Amino acid sequence: MQIAVQDWMRSPGVIAVFDALSDGVTRFVGGCVRDSILGRPIRDIDIATDLEPKSVMAHAGQAGIKAVPTGIEHGTVTLVAKGTPVEVTTLRRDVETDGRRAVVAFTRDWREDAMRRDFTMNALSMDPDGTIHDYFGGIEDARAGRVRFVGAAEMRIREDVLRILRFFRFHAFYGKDDPDAEGYAACVKLAHLLPSLSGERIRQELLRLLEADDPLPALEMMSDAGIWPEIGIAAVDLAALAAFIRLEGGATDPITRLAALLAPDADTGEIASKLRLSGREATLLRNIRKLAQDNPPAPGEIGRYLYRNGAEMSWGAGHLAIARGIDAKSWEAVVAVAEEWQPKTFPLRGRDLLDAGMAPGAEVGALLGSIENWWIDQGFEPDLAACLDHAQSLMPKT
């Protein structure tokens, strides 16, 4: 099969990389090929070559292309040509696997390299002229929305247990109708191996899955397959997430969706730790869920609420509360303000009070807090001069 050459394939950076590696056989691989066939936007450009990594770096250097050895021990080098990053990986075959990582050896056999990829739709490769090489029926599977393992599903999962989560993630983005029967059965059978994965790897797959336009069918399959307890999540609330997605208006933030997915009584801190969420992610997850369980602010206090909690948390908490059927009218008012909210910055600092003649001490912080509350009550409008005038009226006379 051959497709028409697309704009991304003839960008100056891509052409420069292929020219630099012309001593070997080089093709596009993976997602950019799959998504080109399906007419989807191209996110990343990945290339495979039969040149070994040191040769790739040498050829890049000769062509004046920046080469970054991002994963050279696994055969991967990132070339940055004319501002375009292109990941170049030498053809490989698995020598040894342990369910988490593989020891690889380089090869010059394209079919052998394709055999180590997880799904048929990801095992495609494409020449610069648009000629596609399909060893396992990946084109048909991609068009049919069928996520199918390359080879025996159970064997491929035992090589890398993460493929269970990848199976559901790819179904969320590319699947149609029921999942591939062999693949799904293997995921169910081997789900007990998931605890061997690191929290970081689980986090990456789960958050990516939650970015899908409609992740619910895949998440329901995960529930039926008994996946959740194996990755440290005791229970989920798919009904709340379904309602949340209807409310979010096209946003697909994975952390806010995770907040809705977790059952109301879930231990948010424990799950955040298990998934190795970043500090920001853990705080957002925890606070959205906590705020959604609290009473909404009174109409006159919505501005103060947004200022204290931020628009993102307030928006997420409001939608989550509504999704759970809690005081929808009050929370809708919060969400409406949050969607138009511009961050406010209190203009006064403790140093300003000291410069105005106030003696150092605990009273400075107390007065600063009092003035901040006054500033909020005034609709965040008083500027620094007005805040200082108000401070002077409150400062103890000497």
Explain what you see.
- This is CCA tRNA nucleotidyltransferase.
- Residues 184-228 form the tRNA nucleotidyltransferase/poly(A) polymerase RNA and SrmB- binding domain.
- Residues 27-148 form the Poly A polymerase head domain.
- This protein has 4 domains: 1-144, Beta Polymerase, domain 2 (2-Layer Sandwich); 146-231, cca-adding enzyme, domain 2 (Orthogonal Bundle); 234-343, no CATH class; 350-394, no CATH class.
- A hairpin with a 2-residue loop joins β4 (76-81) and β5.
- The chain has helices at 12-20, 31-38, 53-62, 110-115, 138-144, 153-159, 163-174, 181-190, 199-210, 216-224, 238-247, 254-261, 268-274, 279-293, 302-309, 311-323, 328-340, 350-355, 362-377, 384-394; strands spanning 26-29, 46-49, 66-71, 76-81, 84-90, 92-97, 102-106, 125-126, 132-133.
- The longest helix is centred in the last third of the chain and has 16 residues, at 362-377.
- α6 (153-159) crosses α8 and α7 (163-174) packs parallel to α9 (199-210).
- It is 49% helix and 11% strand.
- The protein has 398 residues and is of the alpha+beta class.
- The strands form 2 sheets. A 7-stranded mixed β-sheet has the order 3-4-5-2-1-8-9. The protein has a two-stranded antiparallel sheet with strand order 6-7.
- It starts with 11 loop residues before the first helix and ends with a helix.
Task: Pick out its properties.
single chain, 398 residues, alpha+beta, Beta Polymerase, domain 2, cca-adding enzyme, domain 2, seven-stranded mixed sheet, metal-binding, nucleotidyltransferase, tRNA processing, nucleotide-binding, magnesium
